[in-house]
Amino acid sequence: MTFQKRLWDLLVLALVIFAVAFATAPWFAFRALKAAAQYEDVQAIGELVDFPAVRKSLTAQLNEPAPAAAPAEPPSIWRDPLGVFKQAIEPIAPPEPKVNRYLTVAGLSALTRGYAPGTAPAAPPRPVTAGDRFKAALAGPNAAIAYWDPNRVRIAVRRPGQPQKVTVFTFHRGDLFAWKLTHIRLPGDER
To answer: pTM, whole model, 2 decimals?
Structure first.
């Protein structure tokens, strides 16, 4: 073989490796997010998730539309003295937003496994040997790429035992191989 032929083969091999790495980088970002949530690595989760964007997307899905009915008249001291007293001692602070439980380490761990926060079964024990790790990776739930383009990827995770419930994670590309989670779409009945 000539030097030019070897150089050409090396260049083609480098291009193929680059293309495969570029195409699979979002899947590796999802796997990194899943592992960071499993091992409670807050710093890694902070690097992989755009929290303001994810919070905005989840808030839009979890907020129920306000009813169109007219607001109730406040209680009167003459007609309902106990109602006035009850309203006076109720806490003024609003309840905790529903979205907060999704953006915790446990919530992200449950979502990456296909479950809603608080409904996931206990995580299986962490595999020790390489063979056990390989079996655990194949056991699932396996993430599938639902949509791919050079700047945005959607990865779908089906709930074990309920394949009709799909959680979709949307990643945006920042740098050449850096991807960040910017949106989570919950299954329809959990919105």
So the answer is: 0.77
User: What tokens were used for 149?
Assistant: 């383009």
Residue 184 lies in a domain: yes
**Which residue, chain included where needed, has tokens 């006035």?**
84
How much is the CA Rg of the chain, to the nearest whole Å? 24
Question: Encoding tokens for residue 132?
Answer: 């056990």
Domain that holds residue 137: 25-190
Helix H or strand E segment including 145: strand 143-148
Has residue 3 been placed in a domain? no
Residue 15 is assigned to a structural domain of this protein: no
pLDDT of residue 82: 80
Task: Count up the domains in the chain and report the number.
Answer: 1
According to DSSP, the residues that pair with 180 across neighbouring strands are 172
> Is residue 143 in some structural domain?
yes
Residues with Cβ < 8 Å from 185, sequence gap 6 or more? 57, 61, 167, 168, 170
3-state helix, strand, coil in the chain (%, to 5): 45, 20, 35
pLDDT tens digits along 106-129: 999 999 988 989 888 887 777 788
Q: Where do we find the tokens 């970002």?
A: 29
The token pair at 108 is: 């992200």
DSSP 171: E
CA distance 69 to 65: 12
